[in-house]
Amino acid sequence: MSGKYRPANDAGLASMEQFDRRPGWMLRGHLQRKGREGEEDTVKKAACPDCGGKLMLFEKRNMPLFDTKCTNCGFMAQIKTPEGRPKTRVNGAGYGVLRKWLDAGNPVPPLIVNSRWETGQQIRLYKDIPESHIKPRKLSPNHRYAGYGVFAYVRLDQLPYTTLYAKSD
Ligand SMILES: [Zn+2]
After folding, report:
1. Which domains does the chain have, with CATH numbers?
2. Among residues 61, 26, 63, 46, which one has the least CA distance to residue 116?
3. Is 38 helix (H, G, I), strand (E, B) or coil?
């Protein structure tokens, strides 16, 4: 593989790369596998918070704002799988599609965060996220997706959550 970056076919990946210093061409395949693995781990361990039903994953391309849906009641959520212990800030994805969704009068999609570290794991659901906890920004000029609008979930420590799965230290 050459050192030249090629455009990603999933722009949502741009936001995930903030956490890792390795070059994009090394990360892309790794992150895609890891992101999917994290989502699969989530639906394997967590049941629907509303009815206890089984959660299934969407194919990425079809549903940019949702990763999972309950097979019983239709509950839907976004899944994020940042490395390490639970964080107050979690990177989201492209802001444009979320902005349109919010402008149409919809609430911020429920967020499931699967945090895994060496000795433990917690899967949390943040169901009601006020828009004030969504922080948009544009990627910096020297980023390879310069100017692309992304967002982060911020101050998650101030929001109520439900623990869907926990493995303690
Ligand atoms: Zn359900």
Report:
1. 13-167 (3.40.210.30)
2. 46
3. helix
Ligand 1 mean position, distance from CA 159 (Å): 22
Q: What's the pLDDT at 93?
A: 84
Query: Please, what is the average pLDDT of the chain?
Result: 84
Q: How far is the CA of 120 from the centre of ligand 1 (A)?
A: 26
pLDDT of residue 53: 98
Low pLDDT (below 50) residues in the chain: 1-4, 6-21, 23-27
- Coil, strand or helix at 154: coil
Residues 6+ apart with CB under 8 A from 161: 124, 125, 126, 127
Question: What is the distance in A from the centroid of ligand 1 to the CA of 73?
Answer: 4
Confidence (pLDDT) at 69: 96
The Å distance, Cα 137 to ligand 1 centre, comes to 33
Tell me if the pTM is above 0.85: no
Backbone CA torsion sign across 45, 50, 56, 59 = negative
- The CA 48 to ligand 1 mean position distance, Å, reads 5
| Cα separation, 78 vs 66, whole angstroms | 5
